[in-house]
Amino acid sequence: MTRLVLASLGVIALWPAASAQTPAILDHDPLARLEAALTADPDNLRAGNDYRIAIVRAAQYDRALAFFAALVAGHPGAANAHMNYAFAYVDKIPAAGAITRVILANNALNEFSRALELRPTWLGYYARGNSYLFWPRIFNRTRLGIADLEEAMRVQRADQKHAYHVRTFIALGDGYWKVSEVVKAKAMWREGLKEFPGNAPLRARLAATGKQLAAIIGETYDPERRVDTNLDELWTK
Amino acid sequence: MRCGPWGREFDRTRRLWSASAVAGALLSLTAAGPARATGPWFADVTHRAGVDRPHHNRQFDNQYASIMAGYTALGASASVADYDGDGFEDIFVTDSSRDGRNHLYRNNGDFTFTDVAEQAGVAAGNDAANASADSLWLDYDNDGRPDLLLVRFGHNRLFHNIGDGRFADVTKEAGLDRYANAIGAIAFDYDRDGFVDLFVGCYFSAVDIFNPGTPRFFPNSFEKADNGGGVLAFHNNRHGGFDEVTDRIGLRTSGWTLDLGHGDANNDGYDDLYVAADFGTDRFFVNNGNGTFTDRTAAAIGIDTKKGMNAEWGDFDNDGLLDIFVTNITDEYMREGNFLWRNNGDLTFTDVAREMGAYDTGWGWGARFFDYDNDGWLDLYVTNGWVSAGPESYVPDIFQLIVRPGVDLADVRNWPPMGGKSLSGFEKKKLLHNLGGHAFVDEAARHGVASTDDGRGVAVADFDNDGRLDLFVANVNGAPRLYRNVMPTGRHWATFVLEGTGGNRGAVGAQVRATAAGRTYLRFVDGGNGFAAQSSARIHFGLGAATRIDRLEVRWPSGGRETFTVPVVDRTMRLVEGRGAPLPFAPHTTSPRAAGR
User: Fold this and answer.
1) Which of these, A175, A229, B173, B252, could form a disulfide with A87 (CB 3.0-4.6 Å)?
2) Is B358 a member of any domain?
3) Looking at CA atoms only, how far is residue A139 from chain B in angstroms?
């Protein structure tokens, strides 16, 4: 399954060591321990990521949503709390019905936007831009996604190269393809392949045409498939 | 030499066999046509057949009318039965407008029909307080004549078939005169007492939607609504009436029922019940065999959040177990996917819609299993499309409602009017050809049945008794479609008209297993399965290249099993419980045009 790897230049620097405090009562509930760590440090992206990974494993999506709702209410300026809140909505999508998916996806967009308002980052632009691409054309959100992804591209071009930057090439090309700008899409994928030789998703897109290409992109943005929102790649050398 | 009454019947039978054999051969000859081999296998004969009167939606006349209009584009239905016993299947078709007249299309025997609803006394189905939604043929008194239940938003009506082409309204005497927003009904003998019982699916709760005293009568959730009309179950008291037994037999539900389908999932002789619900969870009830049902939804099919529209049973993979096909909503903006529940044989089912190619049929409505090409595998015809109107889409409007925090969905005033917008409109119908039980492929365009009407009900019957199954499709706010099957002949078939003597006379619930060329096919008599439609109760087997049926076993609704020796194929025959041998089937017609066939 394709990993949705989301990175942030500024965010990584903000990542402090997690709290070592583990009261005995929390030992029986690993999720509670992670919640305690986050409560003590709401803007901690990695702690929030660890918590969400545990939540997905336990399929306790509503617990995470309730927790993050309280967290951002108490700490409205914590941009990464909003980011994790957004991802918590995304995490629940495959477990929800078709209508609830729409609500969850919309709520995720709102939280991504709030995080961007507080702290514009590559992560925020990429995540929100990529999310827009999941929306059916009738909602006219693909162009919004392209704009975000172009901004993410601008940010990453000004930065040192990271492995996860390949994601922007893929997604931005997909966005162009979705609005029928096939030439731009292929150019973007080609540029990405030049930057990241051998990247399988880019090679697949460039090798495919017509229905085959539509199937690849359709599968990528299938709302029934779980999107891996694990951000571990941010911290991988 | 046989003597006595059996001997006389034997002789009469032989004479009729000879006559029908000639007729069958003539039909085969006249229907054969190599020129048609590469053309469409269905011909739209709606206008020529005289069944083209359009359906009209109900326009409400209350303060919520503009909103309700978009959500009540329903009521186009078609139900098939040979009400006059002439051997040709007739069609009852509903309208829903306030002054709309329902139609009883009497089959003239030559693929033309005459609307005799007025003379028959069944035309008046709509008024200020009632809107026709569906209909059901059922022989509730076992007199051998199909009676007619008119299913309505309002008060249902039961018409007793008097037998001279006329019907008498017996609703009150039958104990069925009550308000319900009924949208579908089926009849089967759940307790095997020899009389069919009645199951009515209700969409809205029992609020008078023509003059609602509250605005809170819309679904309270898109996925888990529990304020719908549920199911009403009526036990046939054998004296011309029905007693409501919903709670007593364990069928109390509160979903937004759109369709009911029955079938014997575990072959124990007692039919089980599938309830397809809009805005939430479909229900699967197991018949306990003691006059009660148990809700086994979670174990059998799981708890879904989809928009179940149709519950159709059939053994699509010929494994001897009845499977279930349920339409849901599948469009760019909402990809629920249909259910094709493959029967695991242990009262659980596995959804194989995606791998079988039956997942996406748009905004699905009625669907029916039938073997249109007589190859022995059940195909599917699926209608679809919600509202086909203007170029603007209603999706963004409904999206605004969906994402409004804390919105009270039950309050109709919160729902945006649809106006002239479209929602999943202009969708092409699907004719899913069964490839040996391994996959379905859409052949609708190839065979001329891919209309873009807003379809609702699908009724299948062999209207000209030629061994090729025809289609009648009811569309809302428009004319229906009658498709005559003109497939080149060659493949063999056999059709059986069943009559129970130990159980209900219409043999509803009977299972018939035919073995031919080493393969056994299961078909059954259903009591009105399919959304907004009722197909023929006759049992049809496509036999492919097989020229004989090696074994034919009937499991009657009484529980008795009987094996028949079938002398010929490519013929319609009667099977009467206890007779041991098929009887000839001899349709007769009074149509001058048909006489010259």
Assistant:
1) A229
2) no
3) 7
Beta bridge partners of B539: B496
Task: Mark out chain A residues that contact chain B at CB-CB < 8 A.
Answer: 96-100, 102-103, 106-107, 136-139, 223-224
In a domain, B292, yes or no: no
How many Å apart are CA B131 and CA B115, to the nearest integer? 20
Q: Residue A223 is nearest to which of B222, B335, B395, comparing CB atoms? A: B335
Q: Are residues B481 and B529 in the same domain?
A: no
Contact B222 A100 (CB under 8 A): yes
Q: What is the pLDDT of residue A184?
A: 98
Counting the structural domains of chain B, the total is 2
pLDDT at B70: 82
**For position B560, which CATH number holds?**
2.60.40
Q: Which chain A residue's Cα is nearest to B337? A: A98
Q: Does B202 reside within a domain?
A: no
pLDDT, position A61: 97
Same domain flag for B466 and B555:
no
Question: B467, B487, B507 — which closes off a domain?
Answer: B487
Contact assignment for B334 to A223 by CB distance below 8 Å: no
What is this model's ipTM?
0.78
Interface-testing mutation among A93, A99, A109, with chain B (most B C-beta atoms within 10 A): A99
Q: For strand B272-278 and strand B283-287, is the pairing parallel, antiparallel, or unpaired?
A: antiparallel
B422/chain A closest Cα distance in angstroms: 12
CB contact under 8 A, A139 and B306: no
The low-confidence residues of chain B, meaning pLDDT below 70, are 1-38, 589-597
- The per-residue pLDDT for range B272-283, each reduced to its tens digit, is 999 999 999 999
Could you tell me if residue B27 is inside a domain?
A: no
pLDDT of A25 reads 53
**How would you list the strands of the sheet with B256-263, edge to edge?**
B256-263, B272-278, B283-287, B293-295
Same domain, yes or no: B529 and B504? yes
Residues B511 and B475 in one domain: no
Instruction: For residue range B154-191, list pLDDT tens digits in order.
Output: 999 999 999 999 999 999 999 999 999 999 999 999 99
Q: Are residues B464 and B506 in the same domain?
A: no
Q: What is the per-residue pLDDT for B71?
A: 86
Q: Is B373 on the interface with A (CB under 8 A)?
A: no
Using DSSP, state whether B258 is helix, strand or coil.
Answer: strand
Q: What is the pLDDT of residue A236?
A: 81
- Residue A136 and residue B332: Cβ atoms within 8 Å? yes
pLDDT at B33: 35
- Please judge whether A138 and B396 are an interchain contact, meaning their C-beta atoms are less than 8 angstroms apart: yes
Q: What are B250-275's pLDDT values in tens digits?
A: 999 999 999 999 999 999 999 999 99
**CB-CB under 8 Å, A100 with B306:** no
User: Which residue of B332, B335, B399 is in closest CB contact with A224?
Assistant: B335
Q: Which residues of chain A have pLDDT under 50?
A: 1-22
Could you say which DSSP state residue B560 is in? -
Residue B305: closest CA among chain A residues belongs to which residue?
A97
Same domain, B504 and B477: no
Q: What is the DSSP string of B408-448?
A: -TTBGGGSPP-TT-BBS-SPPPEEEEESTTS-EEE-TTTTT
Pair B464, B555 in one domain:
no
All residues of chain A having their beta carbon less than 8 Å from the beta carbon of residue B332 are: 136-138
Per the structure, the complete domain to which residue B539 belongs is given by 492-584
Q: Check whether residue B471 and residue B578 sit in a common domain.
A: no
What is the Cα Rg of chain B in Å?
23
Cβ pair B228, B277 in contact under 8 A: yes
Which residues of chain B make contact with A137, given a CB cutoff of 8 A? 332
Cα angle B494-B499-B504, degrees, rounded to a multiple of 5: 135
What is the pLDDT, as a whole number, of residue B13? 40
Smallest Cα distance from A17 to chain B, Å: 37
Nearest-Å Rg of the Cα atoms of chain A is 18
